[in-house]
Specification:
346 residues, alpha+beta, Arc Repressor Mutant, subunit A, Pdz3 Domain, five-stranded antiparallel beta sheet, four-stranded antiparallel beta sheet, 10 helices, 33% helix, WH-like_DNA-bd_sf, DEP domain-containing protein
Length: 346
């Protein structure tokens, strides 16, 4: 029992490390997009791709990522402790709320690609390939399945995951596939649906326990490490919430090169009628003079991750889900809001 608890704690620590890496990368992309990361001169020397700690703390507070400057400093220190950022000269192991230069290790090639990180990156790529197939597609291994009378969303039998690895050239043998899947479980990327079994090449059901696509709020990082070992950290949105879904509005990822450098302002305009409907309405009914619906145009300013809402239906469509803390939520988009049209523009 003590050994099992020790393994769970180790897995949870690795899982938290993964969450820190994801949140750090999302922050890095946003800072590049906002031009807070750039080449800077200090004492006649140019330091490429760095940021000023004081400026970043200002940004974190103004964007409500942290409630105050002290929390922002704790957050940045947390990123430093996990080798996400560092002082440009590696002379300061502690973050200071001052005009000091720091840099993301991914921007200068000093990120430590040890075995743990390599497993995490491989798991992230695997997650992208597997979840990129539409739920319900015959090629998708993620389905609603039952084990011992309990239904589990997005679950897959262990043997089917190994089959998938073999079919897609990720493993050269079932034995190697089993080793890779057990490494994913040990690093908190997949788990048995009831958290009762190790990974086996069998019909036992497993799930991804990290949602790599979810936008992280930075304040989560200071609390996740305190979770009980029996708690998971995965937070899922609706099953349609992935890039291949026709119901998702999301920015396309950069093509090649450094994914940090995205330019241009992208907006999504929605002509919305606000109400909770008991039946289906047509566009003509929604827009008819004297209709009892509140009509409003909302402009969502997309960020590096997208707009943060899911839409369904036709003529008119409706908002199925809104990510908390997303640009859509900030613009006032609500679940079940009906829209005449959605228009993306630069």
């Amino acid at each position: 029992m003590e050994r099992t608890s020790s393994i769970r704690r180790k897995t949870l620590a690795r899982q938290h490390k993964g969450e820190v890496m994801i949140a750090g990368e999302q922050l890095r992309l946003r800072l590049h997009d906002g031009k807070l990361i750039k080449d800077r001169r200090y004492h006649l020397r140019t330091y490429p791709n760095c940021f000023v700690a004081q400026e970043l703390i200002d940004w974190l507070v103004s964007h409500k990522e942290t409630p105050d400057r002290a929390t922002a400093v704790c957050l940045l220190q947390h990123l430093m402790d996990h080798d996400i950022i560092h002082h440009v000269c590696d002379k300061r192991p502690v973050i200071k709320d001052a005009k000091l230069l720091y840099r993301f290790r991914k921007d200068d090639g000093t990120f430590p690609f040890n075995t743990e990180v390599k497993v995490f990156i491989w798991g992230q790529r695997l997650y992208g390939h597997i979840t990129g197939i539409l739920i319900g597609d015959k090629n998708s291994i993620l389905k609603l399945r039952e084990e011992h009378g309990v239904a589990y969303q997005r679950s897959f039998p262990g043997c089917q995951l190994i089959d998938w690895l073999l079919q897609n050239g990720e493993a050269e043998s079932r034995r190697r596939g089993l080793e890779l899947c057990r490494a994913l479980q040990e690093h908190g990327i997949i788990q048995h649906v009831a958290k009762k079994h190790n990974f086996f090449d069998s019909g036992l059901l497993y799930q991804f326990c990290i949602n790599f696509r979810r936008r992280r709020r930075l304040s989560e990082l200071l609390n996740e490490g305190e979770q009980d070992v029996d708690e998971g950290v995965a937070v899922w949105t609706q099953e349609d919430n992935h890039p291949e879904s026709p119901f998702v509005l999301r920015k396309s990822g950069p093509q090649g090169g450094n994914g940090a450098f995205l330019s241009g302002e992208r907006k999504c305009a929605l002509f919305c009628a606000f109400s909770t409907f008991l039946r289906t309405f047509t566009c003509e009914e929604l827009l008819a003079p004297g209709s009892p619906f509140i009509k409003k145009v909302l402009t969502v300013m997309g960020d590096v991750l997208g707009w943060g809402f899911v839409v369904r239906g036709q003529a008119p469509c409706y908002v199925q889900a809104v990510d908390p803390g997303s640009p859509a939520a900030a613009a006032g988009v609500k679940v079940n809001t009906h829209s005449k049209y959605l228009k993306e523009r630069h």
